[in-house]
Amino acid sequence: MFKTKKKVLITGGSGALGSNIKKILNCDAPGSKELDIRDLKKCRKAMRKYKPDIVIHCAAWTDVARAEKNKKDCWDVNVIGTENMVKVADGRRFVYISTHYVFDGEKGDYEESDTPNPINFYSLTKLIGEVVVGQHPNTLIIRTGLKKDGPWPYPKAFVDQWLCSDFASKRAPDIVRASLMGRLKGLIHISGKRKTSYALAKKSSPLVGKMSIKDVGIKLPRDVSLNNSRWKKILSK
User: Fold this and answer.
1) Max Cα–Cα distance, the chain, nearest Å
2) Region for residue 90 given its phi and psi (left: phi exceeds 0; alpha: psi -120 to 50; beta: otherwise)
């Protein structure tokens, strides 16, 4: 369990990352009915009620395939919701959880200085969220990759897509560490080792089948592995 004198508010407390953060950090995590990030008035009300020193913004639309057919819903959560929360944070430390999917996957091993180039709508909304957050002071953008703990939710996994993802329970501690580092601002990559989606899936579902990103009807990046050498250097100090 992490200890801090700071009051922490997280959005998306029932999600893959938020639910794991709640296990290791004393924080407030109101449900989506109370804190609907799409509703500016509810965002303001939550800030007045919880009076956080730090906001960790985990709430997001993460279904890549459904985003292509439900663009408004995805936009309202990932862009409008993010804009609402960073606005009401009003200078408090604000941590935005972004994704390795902001890259096109043409080369992999992406550093913080590499140029994003999203190739699907979900990725675009997350990148726009980065831009929105970056316009405010006292903010940290964390690019990462994670999956919900438990059995792989699909019968097959990609053998030709390379990620830096791990399960959320493994990623949460480093997310919390970075969030509590008040002097750490700007952009940081926090990731695991480069692996295929299939290799990750087999960790929890040994009998998972194989498939290709060419088998789905949306554009998916081939290699979005992140270079996290800067984060490792920070931890080594």
Assistant:
1) 49
2) left
175 contacts: CB under 8 Å, gap ≥ 6? 17, 21, 56, 95, 97, 142, 144, 190
**Phi, psi (deg, nearest 5) at residue 73:** -60, -45
Whole-model pTM above 0.90? yes
CATH of 8-148+169-191, one of 3.40.50.720, 3.40.50.150, 3.90.180.10, 3.40.50.300: 3.40.50.720
Q: Residue 203 corresponds to which tokens in the numbers above? A: 């960790």
pLDDT digits (tens, 9 = 90+) for 164-201: 999 999 999 999 999 999 999 999 999 999 999 999 99
* Domain extents in the chain: 8-148+169-191
Catalytic residue numbers, as ranges: 122
